[in-house]
Amino acid sequence: MRKIIAGNWKMNGKLENLLEIKKISNEFALSEIEIVICPPFTLLSAASEIAKNIYLGAQNLHPESEGAFTGEISADMLVDLGITHSIIGHSERRTEHNETNELVARKVNISLNKKLQTIICIGETELQRKENRTLEIIEQQLLDSLASNITFEKLIVAYEPIWAIGTGLIPEASEISKIHNFIRVKLVELFGSNASNIPLLYGGSVNGSNAPEIFRVANVNGALVGGASLSFEKFAPIIRAIENTDP
Ligand code: PGA
Q: Which of 26, 28, 37, 240, CA to CA, is 20 to 30 A from 63?
């Protein structure tokens, strides 16, 4: 199974921060981990000049290929730049930009059609968790955000409990295990046995200290990292943690 560490810089990073990408690229030149950094759009072009042996991803894209969509970026434009990955349906986009499962499904479709490695984010709110609805919510998000006829070879699923994002809180390892197993079973139900190769990432307050325990959980094939991906000093220990985890 591939192991993936993806960093989501969100709306952070200026030209001077390209140095962090350079350091990661140099340090992990020989790593077998699929390392992905998703800086803001403004840095993608410059980052693509310096990122060697690591991949670059976009944090969002538009469901159409081109047209009169002011302020938007298409999958075609990203591919044109040599970008290989995308993050679709992050909870911040679902919440702040009213992205529905239906819109997420359209974005996933175009992203996969353009052969981008596509990280789709799913996860429950704090309230939904308290109401014991986590599995129900996740199943619904999977069903509604993924068309049954997609080519899933480039699909990556990130489980990101919304209450864990940027809060320093993370679920118990047993909880992550239960949910990742559930996602695995549902993906196989949806797409057949080959779907057992879809990498499953955990996201939400991952850091160098909690990463080793998270990566020991079965069916956790990597992480989607926000805050701790912004600097080499915080991101590198997470990559090392997965390098040191048995397959
Ligand atoms: P965090 O963000 O690591 O800062 O909690 C994770 C994410 O939003 O993907």
A: 37
Report d(CA 75, CA 21) in Å as an integer.
22
**What angle (nearest 5°) sits at the alpha carbon of residue 127, between those of residues 126 and 133?**
100
pLDDT tens digits, the chain, 247 residues: what are they?
A: 999 999 999 999 999 999 999 999 999 999 999 999 999 999 999 999 999 999 999 999 999 999 999 999 999 999 999 999 999 999 999 999 999 999 999 999 999 999 999 999 999 999 999 999 999 999 999 999 998 788 899 999 999 999 999 999 999 999 999 999 999 999 999 999 999 999 999 999 999 999 999 999 999 999 999 999 999 999 999 999 999 998 7
| Token pair for 226 | 């926000």
With 0.85 as the threshold, say if the pTM is over it. yes
Q: Which of 224, 231, 234, 235 to mutate to test the pocket of ligand 1 (most atoms within 8 A of CB)?
A: 224
